[in-house]
Amino acid sequence: MSVTHFLIEMSGWAGAVLILIAYLLLSAGRMDGRSKAYQVMNVIGAAGFIVNSGYNGAIPSTTINVIWVGIGFFTLWQGRRLTERPGAPYLSEEAATADAGGETFGAIPGFSHLDDVQAACDLPA
Asked: Which pLDDT does position 35 carry in this prediction?
């Protein structure tokens, strides 16, 4: 095995390990999927897969990992890690304004009438 082939194989294995560690940390609740660290681990891991699969002629794997890297870079570029409202990280300005005003459905066309519905009973605190 040549040094070049060895390094290419190692880039694939290192990428696999990095992506698996990121997924393990995410699944264990130790890392946020929108965090910079998670995205960087995925971008670097997928880059390792691109080198390995590209060298070995695995075009489908190369393609999906190029897309994976693109998504990671887009997320890093966007730089919107939500801290105040988990679960709604990328609201449009209109939806965020509606959310801040207490409207739940107002930003969804055809559903604004649901904001006026009164609860049938009080829920326990």
From this structure: 87
Tokens (6 digits) for 7: 């390094």
d(CA 104, CA 122): 18
Give the pLDDT confidence of 25-58 residue by residue, as tens digits: 999 999 988 888 999 999 999 999 999 999 999 9
Contact partners, residue 80, CB within 8 Å, separation at least 6: 34, 89, 90
Helix, strand and coil content of the chain, in percent to the nearest 5, comes to 60, 0, 40
Distance CA 92, CA 49 (A): 34
Listed in sequence order, the residues at least 6 apart from 52 whose beta carbon sits closer than 8 Å to its beta carbon are 8, 9, 11, 12, 15
Taking only the tens place, the pLDDT of each residue in 105-123 is: 555 665 555 555 555 555 5
- Alpha-carbon distance of 114 to 60, in angstroms, equals 45
